[in-house]
Amino acid sequence: MRAVLVTALCLAAGVIGLMAQARPGTLTIYYIDTEGGQSTLFVGPTAESLLVDTGNAGDRDLGRIVETLAAAGVTRIDHLWTTHYHGDHVGALLALAKQVPVMRFYDHGAPHPNDRIVSAAFLSAYDALSRGKRTIVAPGDKVRMTGLDITTVASANRYLRSNLPGGGSRNASCGVGPKDESAYIDPDNGDSAGFVLAYGRFRTIDLGDLTWNGELDLMCPTNRIGPVDLYLTSHHGLEKSGSPPLVHALRPRVAVMNNGTRKGGTPDAFRVLHESPGLEDLWQLHWSYNVGLDNAPAVFVANVEDAATVANALTAPAPAGRGGGPAAAHSPAYTITVTAQQDGTFTVTNPRNGFSKTYRPR
After folding, report:
1. Which is it for strands 79-81 and 355-359: parallel, antiparallel or unpaired?
2. What integer best gives the mean pLDDT of the chain?
3. Which residues does the chain have with pLDDT short of 50?
4. What is the 3-state secondary structure (H, E, C) of the chain?
5. Number of other residues whose CB lies within 10 A of the CB of residue 311
6. pLDDT confidence of residue 293
7. Half-sphere exposure of 171 (CA within 13 A, CB side)
8. What pLDDT, on the 0 to 100 scale, is given for residue 9?
9. Cα dist from 234 to 97, 163, 211, 306, whole Å
């Protein structure tokens, strides 16, 4: 694993000009490519760091996370937030903690008792690693991070019942009914710990893999959260999540989809996003085989296949929704980066092509 760190640091030196380095007085967000998992790094205005989830197990995602930390100038993880205990969200956690010091851990507590894919071995190791440094969050709890306001809004199937600034109005999108989730073998998704983060007038939300019915519990009949500027799609853009009562009530200006090539990025998720009032742009970590020509314009997609592969996929597409496990490594793997100012201005950048777009306060 030491070799992974050395290699990653060398790679970081080469790509540092392409990545948005954290600057004093600025919030910088790095959406790391974990091939349909999640790992998101926040570097606050005083260089304090928050890492949300750690992608899949193995050197691929570990190397990408370490590379991003190095490029951002992060030498320790001040806050490590785990949304839930599935392998595409905690896979590299234990290995990462051996390379980079972690000062504080946050999670939703014990996994859902009916979940059959949570690793007991991981939980035992995590309990030992986080002992004395662990906070089990509940709705309304805050993460103390200088210059930022971070509020827990969901955790362990419990939801915020007070109003955040901008929230409190009746949610007109709540006519959509619940789904039958009884057959899900992975109910720890629904226990995901999620938060709203504000830096001055800029607001973003990360709900992990919170499922459709949990979104309804959070958002109906009252929209407790209010509008956000940037929405990280719930559950990688799968139709199990991303309900209209959530997405349309949040009214995001920008959505970032942490999908893989065949994991997430489903037609239903795209439809709900494109119908959301006020959405200006969708940015994707990957070109999705599941929607073909309906992907966002290429300048908004961080990682794409070569032209011949895309052409073949469009003429002989694979069955929608195929796959879901770790995919082969792309090299290099590009982030989507965001820099935000206190006045609400934020800029999203695709380091693959250098394309940036700035969104002024609304």
Report:
1. unpaired
2. 90
3. 1-18, 320-326
4. CHHHHHHHHHHHHHHCCCCCCCCCCCEEEEECCCCCCCCEEEECCCCCEEEECCCCCCHHHHHHHHHHHHHCCCCCECEEECCCCCHHHHCCHHHHHHHCCECCEEECCCCCCCCCCCCHHHHHHHHHHHCCCEEECCCCCEEEECCEEEEEEEECCEECCCCCCCCCEECCCCCCCCCCCCCCCCHHHHHCCEEEEEECCEEEEECCCCCHHHHHHHHCCEECCCCCCEEECHHHHCCCCCCHHHHHHHCCCEEEECCCCCCCCCHHHHHHHHCCCCCCEEEEEECCCCCHHHCCCHHHEEECCCHHHHHHHHHCCCCCCCCCCCCCCCCCCCCEEEEECCCCCEEEEECCCCEEEEECCC
5. 11
6. 86
7. 28
8. 43
9. 26, 21, 8, 27
Residue whose tokens read 């006020």 = 278
- Confidence at residue 45, expressed as pLDDT on a 0 to 100 scale: 97
